[in-house]
């Protein structure tokens, strides 16, 4: 048996960037066959050194390939290796499992004269063209995360696709927003068997109805009319739900370190940020919606006044917007300081709220900085944070694996806040539907100790609001 003896199945040719992005991509093509050109192995070999996420992924791919070919002779490799040989494969029956084929011989060049064959991308395209001619009964598909590679393929009439397995959603508009507006007849439908009571000064409702099955724990519910009804889903089992009236942080006497909520979504964000029973909060929003300010103000109250947490730890992915400025001198915090401009700006604002004179403001700023620690993502592996208020800024630039690495650092008593803007992704090969932030919002929406809210209104300035809407 060889690759020409398996007609009818699709044959996916993997580009190097697919394996660099997701090492388990080998096992996500079900019953279809996979072909890896020799130039892809060469590129993987060149990228295996280092401590970056890409280098780690490349080394994992090499381990998978080594596990697949171990114990097989040269003839079996030429005939294709069943992908069900190791436990990472989604199926275990060899009859329905796809096979992995390597390029074991030179394939005749079919590239136009204008495309030099010594370029890696062009070499892969040349292999796909040759396979398309040799396997007329099979559909040969190039899979690549590189948009330009897919454009080249279209110009050469090669069928090319993006790698979609890492997509959390098909459309980012389907992402859970964390808030739902209730219809005007909500109480007519759901209020007939309602129970209400007071507990520790908070108002609770227990009710049933058709909408209960659509709710998630810690979801924000509100009425769009003049009643001002705003509640948080505390428990729901598909038939009954317990709602708690949300506390109003829009008023000055309910301020959080001098900060008050400017809109409905900010009010809900403060409710969940200040709730010690909620261990994980995600805040999405465009520039100027107050994500960092709300998280910092809540962390300061919970750390300094309530003493629920020992300190605030803040980190972020260091992806530059423009050209990299090179190596930075100093300690870990000093190296991270240029990336923490948002933190410093917000701490300056929060410090100014605590004092009136210059001396009081300087003292407040020093007090706040003693409780806020800046840490780099590069040194997170193996760490455990105990009783910390951990803020992960610019989380849209992290992959799902990086998010898992960070969230699993949480020890007892730690609360994690992930904030980001899916419209400002700077990491190559990440999109709003594949971002790690999108991934965790979708995975945590059903957890009773997690909460999410999408902040919609910008509150930075009228200039920033106009620019965000019109540029």
Write the layout of secondary structure elements.
Layout lengths: L9 E5 L1 H6 L11 E4 L1 H9 L6 H17 L4 H6 L1 E2 L16 E4 L17 H15 L4 E5 L3 H9 L4 E2 L17 E4 L3 H5 L4 E5 L2 E7 L11 E4 L6 E7 L3 E6 L18 H10 L6 E6 L5 H15 L5 E6 L15 H5 L4 H14 L3 H14 E3 L13 E6 L6 H8 L7 E6 L15 H9 L5 E6 L6 H9 L1
Parallel strand pairs: 1-2, 1-5, 2-4, 5-6, 7-10, 13-17, 13-18, 14-15, 14-16, 16-17
Antiparallel strand pairs: 3-4, 8-9, 9-12, 10-11, 11-12
Helix pairs in contact: 8-9, 9-11, 11-12, 13-14
Provide an overview of this structure:
There is one protein chain. By secondary structure, this protein is α/β, with parallel strands linked by helices. The chain folds into three domains: 3-161, 3-Layer(aba) Sandwich (Rossmann fold), CATH 3.40.50.1010; 172-245, no CATH class; 262-470, P-loop containing nucleotide triphosphate hydrolases (Rossmann fold, 3-Layer(aba) Sandwich), CATH 3.40.50.300. Helices cover 32% and strands 19% of the residues. Mean pLDDT is 83; it is low at 89-94.
Largest sheet: 6 strands, mixed
Percent range for helical residues?
Answer: 25-40%
Name of the CATH superfamily of the largest domain: P-loop containing nucleotide triphosphate hydrolases
**Tally of individual helices:** 15
Q: Please mark out the parts with pLDDT under 50 across 5 or more consecutive residues, or reply none.
A: 89-94
- CATH topology-level fold name of the largest domain: Rossmann fold
């Amino acid at each position: 048996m060889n690759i020409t003896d398996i007609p009818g199945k699709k044959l996916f040719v993997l580009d190097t960037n697919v394996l660099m992005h997701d090492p388990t991509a080998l096992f996500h093509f079900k019953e279809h066959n996979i072909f890896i050109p020799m130039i892809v192995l060469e590129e993987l070999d060149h990228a295996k050194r280092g401590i970056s996420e890409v280098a780690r992924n490349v080394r994992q791919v090499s381990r998978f390939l080594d596990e697949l070919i171990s114990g097989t002779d040269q003839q079996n490799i030429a005939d294709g290796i069943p992908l069900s040989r190791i436990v990472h494969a989604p199926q275990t029956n060899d009859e329905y499992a796809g096979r992995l084929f390597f390029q074991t011989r030179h394939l005749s060049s079919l590239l136009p004269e204008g495309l030099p064959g010594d370029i890696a991308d062009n070499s892969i395209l040349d292999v796909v063209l040759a396979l398309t001619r040799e396997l007329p009964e099979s559909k040969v598909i190039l899979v690549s995360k590189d948009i330009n590679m897919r454009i080249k393929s279209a110009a050469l009439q090669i069928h090319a696709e993006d790698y979609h397995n890492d997509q959390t959603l098909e459309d980012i508009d389907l992402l859970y927003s964390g808030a739902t507006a209730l219809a005007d007849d909500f109480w007519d439908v759901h209020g007939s068997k309602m129970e209400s009571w007071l507990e520790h000064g908070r108002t609770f409702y227990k009710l049933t109805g058709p909408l209960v099955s659509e709710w998630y724990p810690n979801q924000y519910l509100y009425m769009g009319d003049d009643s001002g009804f705003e509640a948080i889903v505390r428990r729901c089992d598909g038939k009954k739900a317990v709602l708690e009236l949300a506390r109003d942080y829009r008023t000055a006497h309910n301020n959080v370190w001098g900060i008050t909520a400017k809109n409905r979504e900010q009010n809900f964000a403060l409710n969940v940020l200040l709730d010690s029973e909620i261990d994980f909060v995600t805040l999405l929003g465009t520039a100027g919606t107050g994500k960092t300010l709300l998280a910092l103000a809540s962390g300061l109250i919970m750390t300094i006044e309530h003493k629920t947490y020992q300190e605030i730890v803040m980190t972020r992915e260091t992806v530059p917007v423009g050209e990299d400025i090179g190596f930075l001198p100093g300690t870990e915090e000093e190296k991270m300081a240029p990336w923490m401009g948002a933190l410093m700006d917000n701490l300056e604002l929060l410090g100014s709220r605590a004092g009136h004179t210059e001396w009081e403001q300087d003292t407040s700023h020093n007090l706040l900085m003693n409780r806020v620690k800046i840490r780099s993502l590069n040194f997170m592996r193996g760490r455990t944070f105990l009783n910390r208020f951990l803020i992960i800024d610019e989380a849209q630039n992290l992959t799902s694996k990086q998010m898992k690495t960070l969230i699993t650092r949480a020890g007892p008593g730690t609360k994690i806040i992930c904030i980001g803007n899916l419209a400002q992704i700077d990491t190559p090969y990440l999109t709003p539907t594949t971002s790690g932030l999108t991934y965790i919002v979708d995975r945590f929406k059903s957890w009773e100790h997690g909460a999410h809210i999408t902040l919609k209104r910008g509150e930075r300035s009228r200039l920033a609001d106009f620019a965000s809407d019109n540029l």
